[in-house]
Protein backbone atom coordinates (compact mmCIF):
# COMPACT_ATOMS: atom_id res chain seq x y z
CA UNK A 1 0.00 0.00 0.00
CA UNK A 2 2.85 2.42 0.68
CA UNK A 3 6.61 2.51 0.52
CA UNK A 4 6.91 2.29 4.28
CA UNK A 5 4.48 -0.53 4.88
CA UNK A 6 5.43 -2.66 7.85
CA UNK A 7 8.16 -5.18 7.29
CA UNK A 8 7.65 -7.91 9.81
CA UNK A 9 9.73 -10.89 10.58
CA UNK A 10 7.46 -12.56 13.08
CA UNK A 11 8.16 -16.24 13.01
CA UNK A 12 6.34 -19.28 14.26
CA UNK A 13 9.33 -20.37 16.30
CA UNK A 14 8.24 -22.25 19.44
CA UNK A 15 9.69 -19.67 21.81
CA UNK A 16 7.73 -16.91 20.10
CA UNK A 17 4.47 -18.84 20.11
CA UNK A 18 4.90 -19.70 23.76
CA UNK A 19 5.62 -16.08 24.62
CA UNK A 20 2.84 -14.29 22.81
CA UNK A 21 0.56 -17.00 21.45
CA UNK A 22 -1.75 -17.34 24.47
CA UNK A 23 -2.53 -13.63 24.40
CA UNK A 24 -3.53 -13.36 20.76
CA UNK A 25 -7.05 -14.81 20.71
CA UNK A 26 -8.16 -13.06 23.89
CA UNK A 27 -6.83 -9.57 23.20
CA UNK A 28 -8.52 -6.83 21.20
CA UNK A 29 -7.92 -3.58 23.07
CA UNK A 30 -4.52 -1.88 22.81
CA UNK A 31 -3.58 0.80 25.36
CA UNK A 32 -0.80 3.16 24.27
CA UNK A 33 1.20 5.21 26.75
CA UNK A 34 4.56 6.97 26.48
CA UNK A 35 5.30 5.80 30.04
CA UNK A 36 4.08 2.96 32.24
CA UNK A 37 5.24 2.29 35.81
CA UNK A 38 5.54 -1.50 35.93
CA UNK A 39 7.96 -2.15 38.77
CA UNK A 40 10.15 0.11 40.91
CA UNK A 41 13.31 -1.14 39.22
CA UNK A 42 11.98 -0.67 35.68
CA UNK A 43 12.49 3.05 35.01
CA UNK A 44 9.88 3.28 32.26
CA UNK A 45 7.96 6.11 33.91
CA UNK A 46 8.44 9.71 34.98
CA UNK A 47 5.44 10.54 37.13
CA UNK A 48 1.69 10.54 37.48
CA UNK A 49 0.82 9.62 33.88
CA UNK A 50 2.98 6.51 33.94
CA UNK A 51 1.89 5.49 37.42
CA UNK A 52 -1.72 5.74 36.30
CA UNK A 53 -0.96 3.61 33.21
CA UNK A 54 0.61 0.96 35.47
CA UNK A 55 -2.39 0.99 37.81
CA UNK A 56 -4.65 0.73 34.74
CA UNK A 57 -2.76 -2.35 33.55
CA UNK A 58 -2.89 -4.05 36.96
CA UNK A 59 -6.63 -3.50 37.27
CA UNK A 60 -7.06 -4.73 33.68
CA UNK A 61 -5.22 -7.92 34.62
CA UNK A 62 -7.40 -8.46 37.72
CA UNK A 63 -10.56 -7.90 35.69
CA UNK A 64 -9.29 -10.05 32.80
CA UNK A 65 -9.94 -7.28 30.29
CA UNK A 66 -8.75 -8.29 26.81
CA UNK A 67 -5.93 -5.74 26.70
CA UNK A 68 -2.36 -5.33 25.52
CA UNK A 69 -0.23 -2.35 26.62
CA UNK A 70 2.27 -0.58 24.37
CA UNK A 71 5.01 1.76 25.56
CA UNK A 72 8.66 2.67 24.91
CA UNK A 73 11.65 0.84 26.34
CA UNK A 74 13.20 3.98 27.89
CA UNK A 75 16.50 2.21 28.65
CA UNK A 76 17.97 5.36 30.22
CA UNK A 77 14.83 6.06 32.26
CA UNK A 78 13.67 9.58 33.09
CA UNK A 79 16.12 11.12 35.56
CA UNK A 80 17.83 10.59 38.88
CA UNK A 81 17.76 13.65 41.07
CA UNK A 82 20.46 14.88 43.42
CA UNK A 83 21.32 18.26 44.97
CA UNK A 84 24.33 20.25 46.05
CA UNK A 85 24.41 22.18 49.33
CA UNK A 86 22.52 25.10 47.74
CA UNK A 87 19.72 22.83 46.55
CA UNK A 88 20.72 23.01 42.88
CA UNK A 89 19.17 20.01 41.20
CA UNK A 90 21.46 17.70 39.26
CA UNK A 91 20.07 15.19 36.84
CA UNK A 92 21.69 12.00 35.71
CA UNK A 93 20.52 9.12 33.56
CA UNK A 94 18.50 6.47 35.34
CA UNK A 95 19.20 3.29 33.39
CA UNK A 96 17.65 -0.07 34.17
CA UNK A 97 18.41 -3.63 33.12
CA UNK A 98 15.76 -4.79 30.62
CA UNK A 99 17.14 -8.33 30.45
CA UNK A 100 16.18 -8.86 34.08
CA UNK A 101 12.50 -8.11 33.45
CA UNK A 102 11.51 -8.38 29.77
CA UNK A 103 12.02 -10.79 26.86
CA UNK A 104 12.82 -9.78 23.29
CA UNK A 105 10.24 -11.01 20.80
CA UNK A 106 11.30 -12.45 17.47
CA UNK A 107 9.50 -9.82 15.45
CA UNK A 108 10.47 -6.41 14.24
CA UNK A 109 8.98 -3.73 12.07
CA UNK A 110 10.35 -0.73 10.22
CA UNK A 111 9.12 2.80 10.01
CA UNK A 112 10.62 5.38 7.65
CA UNK A 113 11.87 8.43 9.51
CA UNK A 114 13.72 11.07 7.49
CA UNK A 115 13.80 8.54 4.64
CA UNK A 116 15.74 6.05 6.79
CA UNK A 117 14.36 2.69 7.83
CA UNK A 118 14.17 2.65 11.60
CA UNK A 119 13.75 -0.88 12.94
CA UNK A 120 11.72 -1.44 16.07
CA UNK A 121 11.71 -4.58 18.22
CA UNK A 122 9.09 -5.27 20.89
CA UNK A 123 10.06 -6.78 24.24
CA UNK A 124 7.45 -8.57 26.30
CA UNK A 125 6.71 -7.94 29.94
CA UNK A 126 4.06 -10.10 31.59
CA UNK A 127 2.20 -8.03 34.10
CA UNK A 128 0.54 -9.93 36.93
CA UNK A 129 -2.21 -8.39 38.99
CA UNK A 130 -3.42 -9.95 42.23
CA UNK A 131 -6.18 -11.91 40.52
CA UNK A 132 -6.79 -13.31 37.06
CA UNK A 133 -4.40 -13.71 34.17
CA UNK A 134 -1.29 -11.67 33.36
CA UNK A 135 -1.61 -9.02 30.63
CA UNK A 136 1.07 -8.44 27.99
CA UNK A 137 3.02 -5.18 27.89
CA UNK A 138 5.10 -4.49 24.78
CA UNK A 139 8.11 -2.21 25.17
CA UNK A 140 9.30 -0.81 21.85
CA UNK A 141 13.05 -0.67 21.31
CA UNK A 142 15.10 0.90 18.49
CA UNK A 143 18.47 -0.01 20.00
CA UNK A 144 19.23 -2.52 17.25
CA UNK A 145 22.50 -2.99 15.31
CA UNK A 146 20.73 -2.36 12.00
CA UNK A 147 19.87 1.22 13.04
CA UNK A 148 22.14 4.27 12.91
CA UNK A 149 23.52 5.43 16.28
CA UNK A 150 21.07 8.36 16.26
CA UNK A 151 18.08 6.09 15.62
CA UNK A 152 19.24 3.55 18.20
CA UNK A 153 18.80 6.26 20.83
CA UNK A 154 15.17 7.11 19.95
CA UNK A 155 13.66 4.91 22.66
CA UNK A 156 16.35 5.67 25.18
CA UNK A 157 15.45 8.76 27.26
CA UNK A 158 11.93 9.34 28.51
CA UNK A 159 10.91 12.98 27.80
CA UNK A 160 14.52 13.77 26.84
CA UNK A 161 15.94 15.72 23.93
CA UNK A 162 14.38 18.37 21.73
CA UNK A 163 11.20 18.56 19.64
CA UNK A 164 12.73 16.47 16.87
CA UNK A 165 13.68 13.73 19.34
CA UNK A 166 10.20 13.81 20.88
CA UNK A 167 8.47 13.56 17.50
CA UNK A 168 10.67 10.58 16.58
CA UNK A 169 9.65 8.89 19.82
CA UNK A 170 6.00 9.56 19.07
CA UNK A 171 6.39 8.15 15.55
CA UNK A 172 7.81 4.97 17.07
CA UNK A 173 5.10 4.78 19.73
CA UNK A 174 2.12 5.58 17.50
CA UNK A 175 3.04 4.34 14.03
CA UNK A 176 5.49 1.52 14.76
CA UNK A 177 3.31 0.52 17.72
CA UNK A 178 0.34 -0.24 15.44
CA UNK A 179 2.63 -2.12 13.03
CA UNK A 180 4.15 -4.21 15.82
CA UNK A 181 0.69 -5.29 16.97
CA UNK A 182 -0.20 -6.32 13.42
CA UNK A 183 3.12 -8.09 12.90
CA UNK A 184 2.61 -10.10 16.07
CA UNK A 185 -0.87 -11.13 14.96
CA UNK A 186 -3.01 -9.11 17.38
CA UNK A 187 -6.45 -8.27 16.02
CA UNK A 188 -7.14 -4.96 17.68
CA UNK A 189 -10.56 -3.32 17.52
CA UNK A 190 -10.03 -0.59 20.13
CA UNK A 191 -7.02 1.69 20.56
CA UNK A 192 -6.87 3.63 23.82
CA UNK A 193 -4.59 6.68 23.69
CA UNK A 194 -3.35 7.57 27.14
CA UNK A 195 -2.63 11.28 26.48
CA UNK A 196 -1.83 12.73 23.05
CA UNK A 197 1.68 11.25 22.72
CA UNK A 198 0.39 8.26 20.75
CA UNK A 199 -1.94 10.29 18.50
CA UNK A 200 0.03 9.53 15.33
CA UNK A 201 -1.48 6.05 15.52
CA UNK A 202 -4.67 7.72 14.28
CA UNK A 203 -2.89 8.66 11.04
CA UNK A 204 -1.58 5.12 10.67
CA UNK A 205 -5.13 3.80 11.03
CA UNK A 206 -6.51 6.42 8.62
CA UNK A 207 -4.13 5.18 5.94
CA UNK A 208 -5.80 1.82 6.21
CA UNK A 209 -9.18 3.31 5.30
CA UNK A 210 -8.83 5.24 2.04
CA UNK A 211 -12.10 6.54 0.63
CA UNK A 212 -13.68 4.60 -2.18
CA UNK A 213 -12.78 6.37 -5.43
CA UNK A 214 -16.38 7.26 -6.35
CA UNK A 215 -17.31 8.81 -2.99
CA UNK A 216 -19.34 11.97 -3.53
CA UNK A 217 -18.93 14.88 -1.14
CA UNK A 218 -16.31 13.06 0.87
CA UNK A 219 -14.90 16.25 2.32
CA UNK A 220 -11.34 17.41 2.33
CA UNK A 221 -9.80 14.48 4.10
CA UNK A 222 -9.45 11.91 1.38
CA UNK A 223 -9.80 9.24 4.07
CA UNK A 224 -12.75 7.69 5.78
CA UNK A 225 -12.41 8.77 9.39
CA UNK A 226 -15.48 6.84 10.52
CA UNK A 227 -13.78 3.49 11.19
CA UNK A 228 -10.90 5.24 12.95
CA UNK A 229 -13.26 7.14 15.24
CA UNK A 230 -15.11 3.96 16.06
CA UNK A 231 -11.85 2.34 17.13
CA UNK A 232 -10.13 5.15 19.07
CA UNK A 233 -10.57 6.18 22.69
CA UNK A 234 -8.64 9.24 23.85
CA UNK A 235 -7.95 10.18 27.46
CA UNK A 236 -6.55 13.68 27.87
CA UNK A 237 -4.62 14.46 31.04
CA UNK A 238 -3.68 18.08 31.21
CA UNK A 239 -5.63 21.30 31.26
CA UNK A 240 -2.36 23.25 30.87
CA UNK A 241 -2.12 24.43 27.29
CA UNK A 242 1.69 24.11 27.26
CA UNK A 243 1.26 20.49 28.28
CA UNK A 244 -0.08 19.57 24.85
CA UNK A 245 2.58 18.41 22.39
CA UNK A 246 2.88 20.69 19.36
CA UNK A 247 5.26 20.38 16.43
CA UNK A 248 6.06 22.63 13.48
CA UNK A 249 4.77 21.22 10.20
CA UNK A 250 8.28 21.71 8.77
CA UNK A 251 9.51 19.13 11.23
CA UNK A 252 6.66 16.75 10.41
CA UNK A 253 7.42 17.06 6.68
CA UNK A 254 11.11 16.48 7.28
CA UNK A 255 10.67 13.37 9.43
CA UNK A 256 7.69 11.84 7.63
CA UNK A 257 7.93 12.90 3.97
CA UNK A 258 5.20 11.28 1.88
CA UNK A 259 3.43 9.77 4.88
CA UNK A 260 0.08 11.55 5.26
CA UNK A 261 0.03 14.79 3.32
CA UNK A 262 0.56 17.71 5.70
CA UNK A 263 -2.36 19.56 4.09
CA UNK A 264 -4.63 16.77 5.29
CA UNK A 265 -2.94 16.60 8.67
CA UNK A 266 -3.61 20.33 9.11
CA UNK A 267 -7.33 19.66 8.85
CA UNK A 268 -7.07 17.26 11.76
CA UNK A 269 -4.28 18.66 13.92
CA UNK A 270 -4.68 22.42 13.55
CA UNK A 271 -3.59 24.93 10.90
CA UNK A 272 -0.55 26.43 12.65
CA UNK A 273 1.15 23.51 14.34
CA UNK A 274 0.73 19.77 14.61
CA UNK A 275 -1.17 19.67 17.89
CA UNK A 276 -1.40 16.05 19.00
CA UNK A 277 -4.25 16.71 21.39
CA UNK A 278 -6.30 18.18 18.56
CA UNK A 279 -5.38 15.28 16.30
CA UNK A 280 -6.52 12.80 18.94
CA UNK A 281 -9.74 14.77 19.58
CA UNK A 282 -10.57 14.63 15.88
CA UNK A 283 -9.81 10.95 15.46
CA UNK A 284 -11.32 9.48 18.62
CA UNK A 285 -14.96 8.49 18.95
CA UNK A 286 -14.79 8.60 22.75
CA UNK A 287 -12.90 11.35 24.52
CA UNK A 288 -12.61 11.76 28.26
CA UNK A 289 -10.99 13.88 30.93
CA UNK A 290 -9.72 12.31 34.15
CA UNK A 291 -12.11 13.99 36.59
CA UNK A 292 -15.49 15.72 36.27
CA UNK A 293 -13.93 19.16 36.71
CA UNK A 294 -11.21 18.32 34.19
CA UNK A 295 -13.76 17.29 31.55
CA UNK A 296 -15.46 20.68 31.98
CA UNK A 297 -12.16 22.54 31.71
CA UNK A 298 -11.17 20.55 28.60
CA UNK A 299 -14.48 21.37 26.94
CA UNK A 300 -13.75 25.06 27.51
CA UNK A 301 -10.21 24.65 26.13
CA UNK A 302 -11.43 22.73 23.05
CA UNK A 303 -15.01 23.81 22.35
CA UNK A 304 -17.04 21.64 20.02
CA UNK A 305 -16.04 18.24 21.41
CA UNK A 306 -18.03 15.91 23.60
CA UNK A 307 -15.61 15.31 26.47
CA UNK A 308 -16.84 12.76 29.02
CA UNK A 309 -15.41 12.24 32.49
CA UNK A 310 -13.93 9.01 33.78
CA UNK A 311 -12.39 9.96 37.09
CA UNK A 312 -9.05 8.30 37.80
CA UNK A 313 -8.55 5.64 40.43
CA UNK A 314 -5.52 3.95 41.99
CA UNK A 315 -4.63 0.27 42.23
CA UNK A 316 -5.25 -0.20 45.94
CA UNK A 317 -3.34 -3.47 46.55
CA UNK A 318 -0.10 -1.73 45.58
CA UNK A 319 -0.77 1.52 47.40
CA UNK A 320 -2.09 0.49 50.78
CA UNK A 321 0.36 -0.31 53.53
CA UNK A 322 0.33 -4.02 54.49
CA UNK A 323 -1.08 -3.13 57.90
CA UNK A 324 -4.01 -1.40 56.19
CA UNK A 325 -4.46 -4.29 53.76
CA UNK A 326 -4.88 -6.53 56.80
CA UNK A 327 -7.66 -4.23 58.04
CA UNK A 328 -9.22 -4.25 54.56
CA UNK A 329 -9.49 -8.03 54.79
CA UNK A 330 -11.60 -7.56 57.88
CA UNK A 331 -14.08 -5.49 55.85
CA UNK A 332 -14.31 -8.13 53.16
CA UNK A 333 -12.12 -10.96 51.94
CA UNK A 334 -12.85 -9.94 48.35
CA UNK A 335 -11.92 -6.27 48.67
CA UNK A 336 -9.37 -6.46 45.82
CA UNK A 337 -12.09 -7.45 43.36
CA UNK A 338 -14.86 -5.48 45.07
CA UNK A 339 -13.30 -2.37 46.57
CA UNK A 340 -16.82 -1.01 47.12
CA UNK A 341 -16.90 -3.26 50.19
CA UNK A 342 -14.39 -0.89 51.83
CA UNK A 343 -17.39 1.33 52.58
CA UNK A 344 -17.61 -0.78 55.78
CA UNK A 345 -14.16 0.36 56.95
CA UNK A 346 -15.75 2.93 59.27
CA UNK A 347 -17.00 0.06 61.45
CA UNK A 348 -13.48 -0.98 62.53
CA UNK A 349 -12.25 -0.12 66.04
CA UNK A 350 -10.29 3.15 66.39
CA UNK A 351 -7.39 1.47 68.15
CA UNK A 352 -6.74 -0.96 65.30
CA UNK A 353 -6.79 1.82 62.72
CA UNK A 354 -4.40 3.98 64.73
CA UNK A 355 -2.04 1.07 65.27
CA UNK A 356 -1.93 0.27 61.53
CA UNK A 357 -1.21 3.94 60.82
CA UNK A 358 1.58 3.97 63.42
CA UNK A 359 3.25 1.11 61.54
CA UNK A 360 2.99 2.95 58.23
CA UNK A 361 4.37 6.08 59.84
CA UNK A 362 7.25 4.15 61.39
CA UNK A 363 8.14 2.81 57.94
CA UNK A 364 8.14 6.33 56.49
CA UNK A 365 10.38 7.62 59.27
CA UNK A 366 12.82 4.77 58.54
CA UNK A 367 12.63 5.46 54.79
CA UNK A 368 13.41 9.16 55.26
CA UNK A 369 16.30 8.36 57.61
CA UNK A 370 17.65 5.92 55.04
CA UNK A 371 17.48 8.31 52.06
CA UNK A 372 18.44 11.56 53.79
CA UNK A 373 19.95 10.79 57.20
CA UNK A 374 17.31 13.02 58.82
CA UNK A 375 15.48 11.66 61.86
CA UNK A 376 11.84 12.70 61.94
CA UNK A 377 10.01 12.94 65.26
CA UNK A 378 7.78 9.90 65.67
CA UNK A 379 5.36 11.86 67.88
CA UNK A 380 4.61 14.87 65.66
CA UNK A 381 2.17 14.90 62.75
CA UNK A 382 3.80 14.70 59.33
CA UNK A 383 2.55 16.95 56.54
CA UNK A 384 3.42 15.48 53.13
CA UNK A 385 3.73 17.35 49.85
CA UNK A 386 5.10 15.36 46.91
CA UNK A 387 4.52 16.29 43.30
CA UNK A 388 6.37 17.37 40.21
CA UNK A 389 8.19 20.58 41.10
CA UNK A 390 6.64 23.11 38.81
CA UNK A 391 5.15 26.55 39.28
CA UNK A 392 1.42 25.76 39.05
CA UNK A 393 1.65 23.18 41.84
CA UNK A 394 2.60 26.08 44.18
CA UNK A 395 4.88 24.20 46.61
CA UNK A 396 5.78 27.53 48.26
CA UNK A 397 2.25 28.34 49.36
CA UNK A 398 2.77 26.80 52.80
CA UNK A 399 5.81 29.08 53.30
CA UNK A 400 4.36 32.40 52.12
CA UNK A 401 4.49 33.85 55.63
CA UNK A 402 7.13 32.06 57.69
CA UNK A 403 6.40 34.18 60.78
CA UNK A 404 2.81 32.99 60.82
CA UNK A 405 3.93 29.44 60.11
CA UNK A 406 6.28 29.58 63.12
CA UNK A 407 3.50 30.93 65.31
CA UNK A 408 1.19 28.10 64.28
CA UNK A 409 3.96 25.58 64.91
CA UNK A 410 4.61 27.00 68.39
CA UNK A 411 1.00 26.24 69.38
CA UNK A 412 0.55 22.96 67.52
CA UNK A 413 3.81 21.47 66.23
CA UNK A 414 4.19 19.51 63.00
CA UNK A 415 6.93 18.52 60.54
CA UNK A 416 6.98 18.57 56.74
CA UNK A 417 8.32 16.11 54.15
CA UNK A 418 8.49 17.26 50.54
CA UNK A 419 9.59 15.51 47.35
CA UNK A 420 9.43 15.99 43.60
CA UNK A 421 11.59 16.26 40.50
CA UNK A 422 11.76 19.34 38.29
CA UNK A 423 11.93 18.65 34.55
CA UNK A 424 15.46 19.49 33.32
CA UNK A 425 14.09 22.29 31.10
CA UNK A 426 11.86 23.77 33.83
CA UNK A 427 14.03 26.54 35.30
CA UNK A 428 11.20 27.82 37.48
CA UNK A 429 10.75 24.32 38.89
CA UNK A 430 14.45 24.07 39.72
CA UNK A 431 14.29 27.45 41.40
CA UNK A 432 11.50 26.09 43.63
CA UNK A 433 13.72 23.18 44.64
CA UNK A 434 16.47 25.65 45.62
CA UNK A 435 14.03 27.81 47.60
CA UNK A 436 12.74 24.80 49.51
CA UNK A 437 16.29 23.81 50.47
CA UNK A 438 16.92 27.33 51.71
CA UNK A 439 13.68 27.27 53.70
CA UNK A 440 14.60 24.00 55.31
CA UNK A 441 17.76 25.68 56.72
CA UNK A 442 15.90 28.86 57.66
CA UNK A 443 13.12 27.06 59.57
CA UNK A 444 15.43 24.70 61.45
CA UNK A 445 15.70 23.72 64.20
CA UNK A 446 12.13 24.65 65.24
CA UNK A 447 10.33 23.38 62.15
CA UNK A 448 11.67 20.24 60.54
CA UNK A 449 11.36 20.42 56.72
CA UNK A 450 12.90 17.52 54.79
CA UNK A 451 13.28 17.39 51.02
CA UNK A 452 13.38 13.74 49.98
CA UNK A 453 15.35 13.30 46.74
CA UNK A 454 14.30 11.14 43.80
CA UNK A 455 10.51 10.97 44.12
CA UNK A 456 9.73 7.55 42.61
CA UNK A 457 7.44 4.59 43.24
CA UNK A 458 9.27 3.54 46.38
CA UNK A 459 9.24 7.04 47.88
CA UNK A 460 5.60 7.51 46.91
CA UNK A 461 4.61 4.25 48.62
CA UNK A 462 6.29 5.28 51.85
CA UNK A 463 4.92 8.83 51.76
CA UNK A 464 1.27 8.22 50.89
CA UNK A 465 0.97 5.65 53.68
CA UNK A 466 3.08 7.21 56.42
CA UNK A 467 2.18 10.91 56.49
CA UNK A 468 -0.70 12.20 58.58
CA UNK A 469 -1.84 15.00 56.30
CA UNK A 470 -1.54 15.16 52.48
CA UNK A 471 -1.28 18.72 51.24
CA UNK A 472 -2.10 19.80 47.69
CA UNK A 473 -2.15 23.45 46.64
CA UNK A 474 -2.20 23.69 42.82
CA UNK A 475 -3.49 26.77 41.05
CA UNK A 476 -7.03 25.84 39.97
CA UNK A 477 -8.16 24.69 37.44
CA UNK A 478 -4.77 23.29 36.39
CA UNK A 479 -4.79 19.99 38.28
CA UNK A 480 -6.41 17.49 35.91
CA UNK A 481 -7.05 14.86 38.56
CA UNK A 482 -4.21 14.16 40.99
CA UNK A 483 -3.88 10.58 42.17
CA UNK A 484 -1.45 10.80 45.07
CA UNK A 485 -4.26 12.14 47.25
CA UNK A 486 -6.32 9.02 46.45
CA UNK A 487 -3.41 6.82 47.54
CA UNK A 488 -3.13 8.81 50.77
CA UNK A 489 -6.88 8.67 51.41
CA UNK A 490 -6.85 4.87 51.14
CA UNK A 491 -4.26 4.79 53.94
CA UNK A 492 -6.29 7.04 56.21
CA UNK A 493 -3.96 9.98 55.46
CA UNK A 494 -6.24 13.02 55.44
CA UNK A 495 -6.26 15.34 52.44
CA UNK A 496 -6.04 19.11 52.80
CA UNK A 497 -6.37 20.36 49.26
CA UNK A 498 -7.44 23.08 46.92
CA UNK A 499 -10.80 22.19 45.33
CA UNK A 500 -9.61 21.02 41.96
CA UNK A 501 -9.25 17.76 40.01
CA UNK A 502 -10.52 14.69 41.86
CA UNK A 503 -10.92 16.56 45.16
CA UNK A 504 -14.02 18.35 43.84
CA UNK A 505 -15.65 14.90 43.87
CA UNK A 506 -13.85 13.46 46.90
CA UNK A 507 -14.06 16.22 49.48
CA UNK A 508 -16.78 16.32 52.11
CA UNK A 509 -15.33 19.14 54.18
CA UNK A 510 -14.66 18.04 57.75
CA UNK A 511 -15.62 14.43 56.96
CA UNK A 512 -13.24 12.98 54.34
CA UNK A 513 -10.66 15.77 54.64
CA UNK A 514 -10.67 19.53 54.12
CA UNK A 515 -11.14 21.96 51.26
CA UNK A 516 -8.94 24.99 50.66
CA UNK A 517 -11.44 26.43 48.19
CA UNK A 518 -10.57 27.68 44.75
CA UNK A 519 -8.59 30.86 45.47
CA UNK A 520 -6.45 32.02 42.56
CA UNK A 521 -4.64 34.71 44.45
CA UNK A 522 -1.61 33.24 46.24
CA UNK A 523 -1.98 35.60 49.21
CA UNK A 524 -5.62 34.70 49.80
CA UNK A 525 -4.94 31.01 49.22
CA UNK A 526 -2.10 30.93 51.75
CA UNK A 527 -4.18 32.79 54.39
CA UNK A 528 -6.90 30.20 53.90
CA UNK A 529 -4.29 27.45 54.31
CA UNK A 530 -2.92 28.96 57.54
CA UNK A 531 -6.41 29.51 58.96
CA UNK A 532 -7.33 25.94 58.23
CA UNK A 533 -4.17 24.48 59.76
CA UNK A 534 -4.34 26.72 62.82
CA UNK A 535 -8.04 26.59 63.61
CA UNK A 536 -9.17 23.19 62.36
CA UNK A 537 -6.59 20.61 61.29
CA UNK A 538 -3.81 20.81 63.88
CA UNK A 539 -6.12 21.32 66.90
CA UNK A 540 -8.05 18.20 65.85
CA UNK A 541 -4.85 16.18 65.63
CA UNK A 542 -3.42 17.37 68.93
CA UNK A 543 -6.58 17.66 71.04
CA UNK A 544 -9.19 15.33 69.64
CA UNK A 545 -7.49 12.16 68.49
CA UNK A 546 -10.80 10.26 68.38
CA UNK A 547 -12.17 12.91 66.00
CA UNK A 548 -9.08 12.57 63.83
CA UNK A 549 -9.34 8.78 63.68
CA UNK A 550 -13.04 9.11 62.87
CA UNK A 551 -12.08 11.15 59.82
CA UNK A 552 -9.38 8.63 58.86
CA UNK A 553 -12.09 5.97 58.80
CA UNK A 554 -14.40 8.13 56.69
CA UNK A 555 -11.54 8.82 54.30
CA UNK A 556 -11.07 5.10 53.65
CA UNK A 557 -14.78 4.20 53.58
CA UNK A 558 -15.91 7.00 51.33
CA UNK A 559 -12.83 7.55 49.14
CA UNK A 560 -10.97 4.23 48.74
CA UNK A 561 -14.26 2.50 47.95
CA UNK A 562 -14.66 4.80 44.92
CA UNK A 563 -11.31 6.27 43.76
CA UNK A 564 -9.79 2.92 42.83
CA UNK A 565 -8.56 1.56 39.50
CA UNK A 566 -11.09 -1.29 39.42
CA UNK A 567 -13.99 1.18 39.32
CA UNK A 568 -12.13 3.25 36.72
CA UNK A 569 -11.52 0.24 34.46
CA UNK A 570 -15.07 -1.06 34.80
CA UNK A 571 -16.21 2.34 33.56
CA UNK A 572 -13.79 2.35 30.62
CA UNK A 573 -14.93 -1.17 29.78
CA UNK A 574 -18.62 -0.34 29.93
CA UNK A 575 -18.59 3.16 28.45
CA UNK A 576 -15.57 3.40 26.16
CA UNK A 577 -14.59 -0.11 25.10
CA UNK A 578 -17.86 -2.01 24.73
CA UNK A 579 -20.24 0.69 23.62
CA UNK A 580 -20.70 1.53 20.02
CA UNK A 581 -18.61 4.65 19.65
CA UNK A 582 -19.74 7.48 17.45
CA UNK A 583 -17.91 10.73 17.07
CA UNK A 584 -16.70 12.88 19.90
CA UNK A 585 -17.18 15.86 17.62
CA UNK A 586 -20.50 17.55 18.26
CA UNK A 587 -22.69 18.10 15.24
CA UNK A 588 -23.91 21.63 14.58
CA UNK A 589 -27.34 20.96 16.10
CA UNK A 590 -26.32 19.61 19.49
CA UNK A 591 -23.61 22.15 20.05
CA UNK A 592 -24.21 24.42 23.00
CA UNK A 593 -24.80 28.00 21.89
CA UNK A 594 -21.82 30.26 21.53
CA UNK A 595 -19.29 27.57 20.74
CA UNK A 596 -17.23 27.66 17.59
CA UNK A 597 -17.98 25.01 15.00
CA UNK A 598 -15.94 21.83 14.96
CA UNK A 599 -12.80 22.11 12.85
CA UNK A 600 -13.49 18.94 10.90
CA UNK A 601 -16.80 17.74 9.62
CA UNK A 602 -17.85 14.41 11.02
CA UNK A 603 -17.37 11.82 8.31
C1 LIG B 1 0.90 8.90 42.26
C2 LIG B 1 2.20 9.43 41.79
C3 LIG B 1 2.25 10.62 41.06
C4 LIG B 1 1.03 11.44 40.73
O1 LIG B 1 0.51 12.11 41.84
P1 LIG B 1 -0.20 13.53 41.68
O2 LIG B 1 -1.11 13.60 42.83
O3 LIG B 1 -0.93 13.51 40.38
O4 LIG B 1 0.87 14.54 41.72
C5 LIG B 1 3.49 11.09 40.64
N1 LIG B 1 4.62 10.40 40.91
C6 LIG B 1 4.61 9.25 41.61
C7 LIG B 1 5.89 8.54 41.86
C8 LIG B 1 3.39 8.71 42.05
O5 LIG B 1 3.39 7.56 42.72
* Helix count from the secondary structure assignment: 21
Give the number of domains. 2
- Kindly estimate the percentage of residues that lie in beta strands according to DSSP: 5-15%
Going by helix content, strand content and strand pairing, the class is alpha/beta
Q: So what's the oligomer here?
A: single chain
Q: What is the name of the CATH superfamily of the largest domain?
A: Glycogen Phosphorylase B
Distance between the termini: 23 Å
DSSP strand count: 20
Keywords: Pyridoxal phosphate
Family: Belongs to the glycogen phosphorylase family.
Pfam family, one: Phosphorylase
Organism: Frateuria terrea
Report on this structure.
The structure is a single chain. This protein is an alpha/beta fold and 603 residues long. It folds into two domains: 7-214 and 222-313 and 566-586, Rossmann fold (3-Layer(aba) Sandwich); 318-563, 3-Layer(aba) Sandwich (Rossmann fold), CATH 3.40.50. The strands form four sheets. Strands 1, 2, 5, 6, 7, 8, 9, 10, 13 and 14 form a ten-stranded mixed beta sheet that branches. Helix 2 crosses helix 21 (565-577) and helix 13 packs antiparallel against helix 16 (457-466). The longest helix is centred in the middle third of the chain and has 23 residues, at 350-372. The protein is globular and about 80 Å long. Bound molecules: pyridoxal-5'-phosphate. Pyridoxal-5'-phosphate binds next to helix 2, helix 16 and helix 17.
Keywords:
2 domains, binds pyridoxal-5'-phosphate, ten-stranded mixed sheet, disordered N terminus, 603 residues, disordered C terminus, Rossmann fold, pyridoxal phosphate binding, alpha/beta
Amino acid sequence: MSPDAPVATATAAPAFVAAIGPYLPRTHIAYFSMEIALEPRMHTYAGGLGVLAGDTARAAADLELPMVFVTLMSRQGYLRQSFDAQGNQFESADPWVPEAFVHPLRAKVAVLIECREVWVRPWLYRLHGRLGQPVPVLLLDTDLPENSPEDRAITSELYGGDASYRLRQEIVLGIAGVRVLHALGFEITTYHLNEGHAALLGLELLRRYPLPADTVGAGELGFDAGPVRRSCVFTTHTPVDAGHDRFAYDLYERLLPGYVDSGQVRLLAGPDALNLTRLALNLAGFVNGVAVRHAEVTTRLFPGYDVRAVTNGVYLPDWVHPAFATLFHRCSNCWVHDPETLARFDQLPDGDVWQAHAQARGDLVAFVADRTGVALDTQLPIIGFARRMTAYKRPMLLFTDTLRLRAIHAKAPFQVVMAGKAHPHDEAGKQLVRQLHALSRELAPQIRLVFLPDYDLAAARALVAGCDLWLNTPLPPLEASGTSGMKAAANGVLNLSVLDGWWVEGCIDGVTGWSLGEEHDDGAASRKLYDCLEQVVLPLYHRNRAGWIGMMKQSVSKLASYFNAHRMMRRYAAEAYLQHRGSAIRTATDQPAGRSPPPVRAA
